[in-house]
Amino acid sequence: MCGIIGYRGDKDSKRIVIEGLKSLEYRGYDSWGIATVLNDRVAVFKKVGKIGGFSADQLKMEAGRIAIGHTRWATHGNVTEANAHPHVSCDGKIAVVHNGIIENYQELKAELKDHKFVSQTDTEIIPHLIEGYVREGYGFVEATKRALSRLEGRFAVVAVMAGYDGLIGARRGSPLVLGLGGGEREYFIASDIPAFLNHTRNVVFLEDNELVVLNKDYRIMNIKTGEDIKREPQHIDWDAAQAEKGDYPHFMIKEVLEQRDTVSRAIKQSDGEIMEVAKMLNDSFGSFFVACGTAGKVALAGTYLFSRIANKHVNFSVSSEFPNYTHFLTDKTLMIVVSQSGETADTLEAMDAARAKGVKIVGVVNVMGSTITRQADRFLLVKAGPEKCVASTKATTGQLAIVTLLAYACAGRLEEGRELLEDASAKINAILTEEYVANIRALAEKIKGWESMYIIGRGLNYPMALEAAIKVQEVSYIHAEGFAGGELKHGPIALISNGTPCIVLVANDETKPDILSNAVEVKARGGFIIGVAPKNNEVFDFWIPVPDVGNASPIVNIIPVQILAYHLAVLRGCNPDMPRNLAKSVTVK
Ligand code: AGP
Hints:
This protein has 589 residues and is an alpha/beta fold. It has 3 domains: 3-242, 4-Layer Sandwich (Glutamine Phosphoribosylpyrophosphate, subunit 1, domain 1), CATH 3.60.20; 245-431, Rossmann fold, CATH 3.40.50.10490; 433-583, Glucose-6-phosphate isomerase like protein, domain 1 (Rossmann fold), CATH 3.40.50. Helix 11 runs antiparallel to helix 12 (414-431). The longest helix is centred in the last third of the chain and has 19 residues, at 553-571.
């Protein structure tokens, strides 16, 4: 959580940081702040709330060549200006922005008796620790290195000091990427590439326990040993426009509609690569799909797809629970982690637990260069482009496409899988018309006043019922719950009253008669039945047509629910891009 950016160069540093923060705001948005570096002091400005329409021209602070900024998702301490970053040392000359959690901050604070702390954050310990070492006579780089090597927990940190013509960045467990600018000795450093995508696509990813000094040159070193590390820049082929809203009112609807081609992009994996992962899966025993939240629903769908298409049993665990299964792991186990960001702390921890048992790991990830892409033994890129809305949409269907293709590859039917998914992609493209979206908006108008709704599915569409519930909950704040159709009669059906909306996800497969019977049961109790199905049925009070695409039904069935969730959010006055209490990359446990 939290977004960090730093800039050093000849351009307007304040403007670059403010613009960068706007593009990082999806990572956290309860407060923000900026520090500019002058010769004798560091100037700091902080504000509670979203950065929104705030422009650099409104900032009446002096600025030089260097500035850092932060957008916060609170962990330690309330949402106040004092707790917003950057945090500064007693003399106001050192400023730090941080993403992560410093686990030993209380012990360190107790040591720093002669320092004055003004916030409740764990972060504030960092500028004071650095200041302590500077007081002892160490230079800024050495002082920062010493301070950081005392920290326990996860961090991405950028530090600056008055009079020092450079930035220091470091990471352990939280992402940090360096951008090499066009101008001479121009550098960007940020939590994520879109923060500087308008300026450069030449990047260097920092690894855990690395520190980078950005001044005349960039120098990467190991935080503990100080040993120099050489790393060549990579060129990222993301298009800056992909990370902009363009004419759309929100990223969410832009990204939903981008699903016109995300499935066909996702399956553009080389046969060789897919077959190698398929071989790893076929050679494995007792393997696990592991992921969180929406990616977790894709992972759960993976178990159904593998069982159905490849006749192979794969286990599933949400990442945070995975460490409880480690006694089942052997060196024959394969772990498939699914993640949009590639930075989710729970998933990274699950990977650590698996690696300790000799388990091989395959990642299905959207963000190139993310920690999962670097730590997994192999990875398949989802290729959905930057996903900015907190609610995952296009990355989800891209992940589903890859997992479906893998199942076909394991069954030795790769070409059949490709054809199925190409066909699904073309059909998605055809249905995503203005009229289709307007029809779903009309439905949202009808049900927007309800405080609860239910979603049911069976087989491949049970995980999608769970995912549909997440989409509705996170953006519209309606209490939504997903169930396996067969489970309703075991309890939840008691919640149905006259008019309660119930979305029924139907696939044209063997589950169809039973899920329609479940819909009839709900209707008999007064439920308002919204059918997402290839064919209309008399039980539906409202029908949302979807193409009949066989085993790709989870992909096409979730899209209309994403559109519904979006319109419910907008009609209820919620900002779908930045739901309350949430952040895009969940980099804390
Ligand atoms: C998606 O709509 C959610 N905001 C969330 O559940 C997300 O899927 C989860 O945090 C996992 O993130 P990841 O895909 O980046 O690992």
